[in-house]
Amino acid sequence: MEETLSLQDLFKTIKKRATLIFLVTIFAITLAGVYSYLIMTPIYQSSTQLLVNQQKTEQAQFNTQDIQTNLQLINTYKVIIKSPAILSEVIEKLDLDQTADTLNSNISINNEQNSQVVVIKVEHPNPALAAEIANTTAEVFQEKVKIYMKVDNVNILSPAKKSESPIKPTPNLNIAIAAVVGLMIGIGIAFLLEFLDTTIKTEQDVEEILSLPIIGLVSPITDREMPSNTTIIQRRRRKR
Fold first, then answer.
1. Domain spans, the chain
2. Which key words tag this protein in UniProt (predicted)?
């Protein structure tokens, strides 16, 4: 016989296992909170902005072609900024205890679409050091680009400043995600237990399994109502 699960049965199962679902959800939230606040290391971000301009002669004026040339240079500059030649000097100036590859993973270079502004972003557990790395990287690149590209077209628009609040972890977001995941896991466990539980507990279970109506019930007998062995023997003697 094919069994179907109605919406009423779904809510019935959730109500029946509400305590289990609640405990699983609370456990997931607690786990996410402990991991976010006590285990994960806060990461801070600082950024500095560079303006890329084509070198201007005495009589030359900027036009659309110049801007397009600058935009093409930006892609080259992104590679140069994250190259070992730049990052190794940054490490040497700041006396950092890390390799160029490790520092490279902490730095990201971005620029807005059709913009000549390049943004150097640095992520680090130390907020002050993150700002220093960003500023030093910008300064070293500004010096080295004159040697590598034979141009002087990079200006620092705004230096990086120490960040007061970390960008990650985000405890509130982690806890919200954990609550949703915990709720889904709790409901899943509840339905799994309900599916595996094949015991018959009520008359409704009998009707559902046998598809037959209940015509009579045996009332439970308490210990007081249960006759003792002595009473049974006396009744037998009377009948004799």
1. 7-37+170-231, 44-158
2. Cell membrane, Membrane, Transmembrane, Transmembrane helix
Residue at 182: amino acid letter: G
**pLDDT tens digits, 110-120:** 987 778 889 99
- The superfamily in CATH containing domain 44-158 is EIF_2_alpha (3.30.70.1130)
- Give me 178's structure tokens: 């954990």
Q: If you search the block for the tokens 């399994």, which residue do you land on?
A: 209
Alpha carbons 175 and 29: distance in angstroms, whole number = 5
| Residues belonging to the chain | 240
| Predicted TM-score (pTM) of this structure | 0.68
CB 46 within 8 A of CB 159: no
What whole-number distance in Å separates Cα of residue 222 and Cα of residue 227?
10
Please, which contacts does 157-160 make with residues 24 or more away whose CB atoms are closer than 8 Å?
A: 157/48, 157/49, 157/50, 157/51, 157/117, 158/48, 158/49, 159/48, 159/131, 159/134, 159/135, 160/46, 160/47, 160/48, 160/120, 160/122, 160/130, 160/131, 160/132, 160/134, 160/135
